[in-house]
């Protein structure tokens, strides 16, 4: 049975586009003002920004510790710290990963079930060739993904 949204997807999409087109200037002005205020506040309160980031990292660490304990994941707290550190050091890559995840979750991109390299049916990862654009990636299984990273490391050594 189709939902209302599924039956009327095209009409709703056109209405949204029309609404955003009509209100684009108003929204743009609002967001520019808001962005400027936020930048000003961040410049004036660097100690609060640092405190908020530390508090967020602590909450995230506690959440994952609890989740791993309940669900039996083998990642340690040290692994989580490395992940958080990597995310902090590479915000542009995190942004690209998030864009790709949004595209997959929204249905604009479909994640295949079979690895195009080895033809195994398993969970498929996205391997970014470079981070110029979120669409510069290959779908690979975990094994092929690791091999691809090993190739990159080998290229740097030569």
Description:
This protein is mainly alpha-helical. It contains six helices and two strands; from the N terminus they run αααααββα. It has a two-stranded antiparallel ribbon with strand order 1-2. A hairpin with an 8-residue loop joins strand 1 (124-128) and strand 2. Helix 3 packs antiparallel against helix 4 (77-89).
Mean pLDDT reading: 86
Radius of gyration: 21 Å
Tell me the number of helical segments per DSSP (H or I, 4 or more residues long): 6
- Outline: extended
Count all strands and give the number: 2
Output the structural class: mainly alpha
Reported for the largest beta sheet, the result is: 2 strands, antiparallel
Low confidence ranges: none
**First-last Cα distance:** 58 Å
What's the helix-strand series? HHHHHEEH
Helix content: over 70%
- Provide the β-strand percentage band: 5-15%
Q: Give the spatial strand order of the biggest sheet.
A: 1-2
Helices and strands, with pairings:
Blueprint: H1 4-7, H2 9-44, H3 46-71, H4 77-89, H5 91-106, E1 124-128, E2 137-141, H6 142-157
Antiparallel strand pairs: 1-2
Summarize it.
With 158 residues, the chain is mostly helical. It is built from six helices and two strands, in the order H-H-H-H-H-E-E-H.
């Amino acid at each position: 049975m189709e939902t209302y949204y599924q039956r009327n997807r095209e009409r709703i999409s056109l209405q949204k586009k029309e609404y955003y087109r009509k209100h684009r200037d108003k929204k743009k002005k609002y967001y520019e003002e808001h962005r400027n205020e936020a930048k000003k506040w961040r410049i004036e309160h660097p100690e609060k920004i640092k405190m908020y980031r530390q508090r967020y990292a602590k909450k995230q660490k506690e959440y994952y510790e609890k989740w791993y304990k309940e669900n039996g994941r083998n990642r340690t707290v040290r692994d989580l710290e490395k992940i958080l550190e990597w995310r902090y050091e590479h915000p542009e890559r995190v942004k690209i990963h998030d864009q790709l995840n949004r595209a997959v979750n929204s249905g604009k991109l479909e994640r295949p079930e079979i690895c195009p390299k080895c033809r195994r049916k398993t969970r498929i990862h996205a391997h970014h060739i470079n981070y110029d654009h979120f669409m510069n990636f290959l779908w690979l299984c975990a094994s092929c993904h690791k091999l691809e990273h090993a190739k990159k490391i080998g290229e740097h050594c030569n």
